[in-house]
């Protein structure tokens, strides 16, 4: 008989997990969400096998529970678990972007019946809701697990098996280390991206043309400012100490840069930029962490009808699958750029050759 996986919270992340677990054909998926139209959508599109009328009812029939609601709601769901009578031990995990407050709440659970393994699939998008869910969202991404002390290796391996359909790479971390690292590479950058957008918006009062001039660099660095504000404020407040510490670091760093400018210290400014470039270049395009990264190919195209379709056709004709395609900058009559992303280097290099043969100018940024 198939084991039952309950997913509570069927938005972008819960829905994507449901899709990736369901396609293995190994599990019976029961969904729970406070939003009934989300449940209807999931049933209609066969994302789940059954919709549960209550969280308690769902947990009672579960072998595994995945909590995929916003962080604050996930903490409330963990608190509800102790009041639910289960007749066998179950494994519970979550997907929250912060781990310490989750593990603190899980520490108050009845350890005999509930094996809690914190989880954080480190891939996502600026979109929210079930309509944005994708079966392959977590493919090749890092999936952090933070098991409670009562979880044996066997229990952890068993959960990894449930999550195998995500095709992600598991990493066991201590919750405090996870929160410190994600505050540096994920949470704090979101705050900075939003602050840069605010700065541009405020300067627009002086220069109405600012949005028209906003070029690739500004768009790249502020892309994540378009993410779900409700989710991010929740994350910031659950990682308040980490965020405050990074803000202090940042303010000190900005003051140092200001004084380099004021004193005309060009050598130090050059060194600052050069060291940043070296470190950024060294991150490489290979790993898919919190910032999804693939094997990208930049293709120069003219803004003419059918230009995008032609590139796709040429690659599809050679059985090359494209992971993502994005128009970076394209204005009437001016050469524009497409960023075409592939899953591996082989596809990237083969595409470069095909497009070159067909007269396209391409660039690979190592
Ligand atoms: N969006 C992203 O890129 C990533 C998000 N995460 C984490 O995933 C979690 C969910 O985020 P998303 O899926 O993006 O949000 P979402 O807004 O797309 O989905 C959240 C879902 O939870 C439901 N929900 C709210 N309260 C509930 C409750 N009490 N019980 C059951 N369902 C409830 C909502 O109706 C909605 O369907 C968050 O904790 C976030 O930190 C983790 C990795 C990436
Ligand atoms: O789209 C992006 O660049 C992201 O940063 C996605 C993301 C959002 C939240 C997470 O906890 C992990 C990944």
Automatic annotation (TrEMBL):
Which named protein is this? Prephenate dehydrogenase
User: Boundaries of each ACT domain copy?
Assistant: 296-366
Every copy of the Prephenate/arogenate dehydrogenase domain together lies at 3-291
Provide the family line. Belongs to the prephenate/arogenate dehydrogenase family.
What PANTHER family has UniProt attached to this entry? PREPHENATE DEHYDROGENASE, PREPHENATE DEHYDROGENASE [NADP(+)]
- Which SUPFAM superfamilies does the record associate with it? 6-phosphogluconate dehydrogenase C-terminal domain-like, ACT-like, NAD(P)-binding Rossmann-fold domains
Keyword field = Amino-acid biosynthesis, Aromatic amino acid biosynthesis, NAD, Oxidoreductase, Tyrosine biosynthesis
Q: Which GO terms describe its molecular function?
A: NAD+ binding; prephenate dehydrogenase (NAD+) activity; prephenate dehydrogenase (NADP+) activity
A GO BP term, please?
A: tyrosine biosynthetic process
Q: Which domain of life is it from?
A: Bacteria
Q: Which Pfam families match?
A: PDH_C, PDH_N
Tell me yes or no: is Ubl conjugation among this UniProt entry's keywords: no
- So what EC number does this one have? 1.3.1.12
Quickly give the catalysed reaction.
prephenate + NAD(+) = 3-(4-hydroxyphenyl)pyruvate + CO2 + NADH
Q: In which pathway does it act?
A: Amino-acid biosynthesis; L-tyrosine biosynthesis; (4-hydroxyphenyl)pyruvate from prephenate (NAD(+) route): step 1/1
